[in-house]
Amino acid sequence: MVRIVCVIAMLCAAWLSGCSREESRTAPAAEQSKSPAVVQQERPVEAAPRPAPPPRPNGGKGEMLKKSFPRPPVGPDRSSRGNGGTPAVVGASPALGADRERMRKRDDYVAGLSKAAYTFNPPTPIKVARPIAVALWVDPAKEAAQLAEEMKKAFPESAARVEPGTTVWSPRMKAALTGPTDLEITPLDPGKDGKPFDGEKDLSMTGRTEWSWSLVPTLPGTKKLQLRLSVVLPRELGDPHELQALERDVDVEITVWWLIDHYWERWKWAIGGIASALAAAIGWWFKRRFGGGK
Questions:
Q1: Which residues of 216-252 are buried (b: 16+ CB within 10 A; e: fewer)?
Q2: H or E element: which one contains 32?
Q3: Is the dihedral of CA 283, 284, 286, 287 positive or negative?
Q4: Is the pTM of the predicted complex or chain greater than 0.70?
Q5: Confidence band (pLDDT; 50, 70, 90) for 216?
Q6: 126 near 132, Cβ under 8 Å?
Q7: Strand pairing category for 246-253 and 126-127
Q8: How do 221-231 and 172-178 pair as beta strands?
């Protein structure tokens, strides 16, 4: 009896094992045989998007912070930097654009100027306390050598010191002669409206234009004399355009008369004392010589 029960139990276990294997084989096929509609129904339903929160009123805390601390402007992007890390100019201001245009016109004006000959007679050597004339001539129609010969005839005392050269010519120019304080320089050209001459002149297109100064050295020694010539630009182009200055050394020599005049204040007391002593000695000698004989 027991054997019969064991056999029946083993048959039942074998039957159950075969059923489980059959179900595992048919499950994928059943899953693949489902229709798209059934699959669509079995997918989970997505949640609907949440509505955006209502905006805060203007009096909210966030709006107050934005009004109190506004967001700073965004600076230039690093990608817009040029060579060397310099920020590239995205947009120039109207004032900067106007200055650039003015400088461009200024450079074009100076580059378009013509040439002219000039002559200059820097004085050296000269005597202390003696005035001497210094001149500058500019002529667009003559050669520098020809203009120099004319200046030598006009200033024969400084013929050996005349220097010719070439410079820029402009319809209006300014010349200035400067030096140390012990060189008294006075323009000989008359001023306008009772004012001192400022060095500006309208230049001739066919002849020479002259500037002249009187120079008086008050102390001996070597002095630095400087001549500056500038192009006076139209008012809208800015200040005058200064050309390269001419610098010359001037040797000032001493004279006997200058020594006497310069040191007279010191010497007159000594001379007066010596004269007084001589007068007293002569008076004593006469008194003793002739007074003792009476």
A1: ebeebeebebebbbbbbbeeebeebbeeeebebebeb
A2: helix 2-32
A3: positive
A4: no
A5: very high
A6: yes
A7: parallel
A8: antiparallel
